[in-house]
Amino acid sequence: MTTETRRDEIADGLAGVEARIAEACRAAGRAREELTLIAVSKTYPASDVRLLAELGVRDVGENRDQEAAAKARECADLGLTWHFIGQLQTNKVRSVVGYADVVHSVDRPRLVAALSGEATRAGREVTCLVQVALDDDPGRGGARPPDVAALADAVAAAPGLRLGGVMAVAPLEEEPGKAFARLRELAQAVRDTHPGADIISAGMSGDLAEAVANGATHLRVGTALLGRRKPFVR
User: What CA–CA distance (Å, rounded) separates 161 from 58?
Assistant: First the structure.
């Protein structure tokens, strides 16, 4: 496939996603400017990230450090905002802090401490979102709703970190709108204590309209932009 052909494919995907976001905003009575589109580029090459940047996308999401670190280095000249959206092990924190501007998956105090230590060491400020578990699947990560407030307080107090808000993935066995409504309530409770924590990261290719309807500020979209996933090859 030529670069031009791939660019046309991505442009078509982006146009389709933007049309869906615009319709969701109209239905919810919201302005498009309230939403940040994060292009989730996992399993896709750095060349796709460059094409996305050419098309005006400024925010890129990754969920595996090995893949993300390499792409961030290759695309360092583009001035993009990098979002780490996958589950994060403490032994990967130093690497992630080296390139990630926003970490969406903060779900335990030990991770807060590790991120704070590495951000301070690197002289960086990293925006952190508290990942909320909206179901009982431990494999998907996230703090239980009763633990969210204390975890948000810990992030807000940690040197080198900025509390951005909350993140969640819709449960597989539940209507996304209902799940995102619960997230919206938790986000408001966090914002009541920390007024600057106004990010709600929710919504992916299949449920972005429901997320927009429930106050999402950041949408994490991959498949609808870039096509069906392929195994990542370095």
Answer: 22
